[in-house]
Amino acid sequence: MDFDLPDEIEQLRRTVRKFVDEAVIPVEHVVDRDNAVPDSILREAARLGLFGIAIPEEYGGSALGALARCVVHKELARGGLGSICSIIGAHTGIGTIGIVRTGSRFVKEKYLPALVTGDAIAAYAITEPNTGSDVAGVETRAERRGDRFLFTRGKPTERIWYYDLSDIKTGKKSPLTLAHFEEFFRLLPARGDSDHSWTVERKEIEARGYDLKAVNPNAKRDEDTRTPEELLDIIEAKGREVAEALAALRAVTGKKG
């Protein structure tokens, strides 16, 4: 089985990666601090056509296939899930999918061109005070009563369970497979905690003002425990290796001369 990306998708991947490396990652701390994505990033994303990847070409979009869109979102996620990744993801997904799939010609012509250029950014109104953006926990219910709907409230969400896959390294020779989700499916029924999963209780959600960031508190961090003296010894040893290699090269060059 060939896991290599088609040439055009590989070029797309490189373009998006360059954008993330040069424009997004350097200001990731600013996004976390200000809870806002700089306009410069939004303008560059629009210039690259990222807002129109799921919109038909007749309205100015590129209508990328599923694989190409996955590649785009994967590269954007390298810049942080709370940054441009979330904006593009919501915009091209739940934000515009209703118009693209079910909108009338009039509605599509009115809204889609601006959504392609980034002059308008789509969103999806699902947030409630007690649930954040947990769609499964939305309290509002619409019950049919004859020729009317009665809106009622259900029980509030008491906790949110997260599972983190961000440490998985994938590539041409190591694609993402079902094996990577083995622990996820094992923990899912009971929403268990692990090095990759964690739970946020309602009290913490309220204390944070419903501003949650999916940062894994259980992740194991690699810590360099070497002392300064050990690091200096390593640098000195590498220096000797370089000096020996240069001496050998000079000897070879001298013989040829």
For this entry, give a set of tags:
single chain; 257 residues; mainly alpha; Butyryl-Coa Dehydrogenase, subunit A, domain 1; 3 domains; two-stranded antiparallel ribbon; two-stranded antiparallel sheet; 9% strand; globular
CATH topology of the largest domain: Butyryl-Coa Dehydrogenase, subunit A, domain 1
Strand order of the largest sheet: 1-2
Number of strands: 4
Helix content: 40-55%
Helix run count:
10
Mean pLDDT: 85
Can you tell me about this structure?
The protein is mainly α. The protein folds into three domains: 7-117, Butyryl-Coa Dehydrogenase, subunit A, domain 1 (Orthogonal Bundle), CATH 1.10.540.10; 127-157, no CATH class; 158-221, no CATH class. The strands form two sheets. It has a two-stranded antiparallel ribbon. It is globular and about 95 Å long. Helix content is 45%, strand content 9%. It contains ten helices and four strands, in the order αααααααβββαβαα. Helix 1 (7-24) runs parallel beside helix 4.
Furnish the topology, listing elements before pairings.
Layout (H helix, E strand, L loop, with lengths): L6 H18 L3 H7 L4 H9 L18 H12 L6 H9 L4 H6 L2 H13 L22 E6 L2 E6 L5 E5 L18 H6 L9 E5 H6 L20 H29 L1
Antiparallel strand pairs: 1-2, 3-4
